[in-house]
Model the fold of this input.
Amino acid sequence: MGISANVIKVRNVIIGGDKPCLCAPVVGADAEQVLREAEEVCQKKPDLIEWRADFFHHIGDLERVLAVANELRHVAGDIPVLFTIRSEREGGQPIPLDEEEKQQLMKAVCESGAIDLIDCELAYGERIADVRRVAYECGVRLVVSSHHFDGTPPEEVLVDMMRRAAQSGADIAKVAVMPSSPEDVLVLLEATQLARRELSIPLITMSMGGLGAMTRLVGWLFGSAVTFAVGQQSSAPGQIPIEDVRTVLSVLQQYSR
Done:
């Protein structure tokens, strides 16, 4: 059973193939915490690692960020690394950088050769093109994302978000929403299914919190190519430990062929 209309290969990992990828976040506050957490997470062999750099207290120091990125690359080995500075408006931590400084940091990290994917929010608008250009030149894959912690937009709005992400040059489109009812969870899954049929890039979608937790386990059946699972510390509400996700996925895949 295919996951999306298209697949991409990052290092040795297929994103959008016939099984979902597991991505574990790293959210350390300093270099020691980031690298220790990464080492422990890597022992659980996720398909991807996401460095949530907005948790990093020294994010305003470019040299420190690049040094940690390079050490993280060494720790991760062949596991692809996704670099993310999540904005406060979309659930991230407050950081001492304005939009221009944040964009310059993202470009510098792409140019470092230490990462494989970079997250850029759909809300960046026209600025996405600049990040996309640098990412393309550096061989870094672009994830264009949108996060809604205050509810679940209508199905057609969610599909349009993924469509606009694709139009902006994303290699992967990501949408995360917060449900207030089981119906909201169905809206997210239906939107994922519709977008999968229309678009030619892999998708990452999830409904957050306890109500939406099941989408992290069954979303791949509807077209979500990656699920975020806890290696050490959660980076969003509703994330499930990687061991539990693996167990459920193995059962589902065994009986859904």
About this structure: The mean pLDDT is 93.
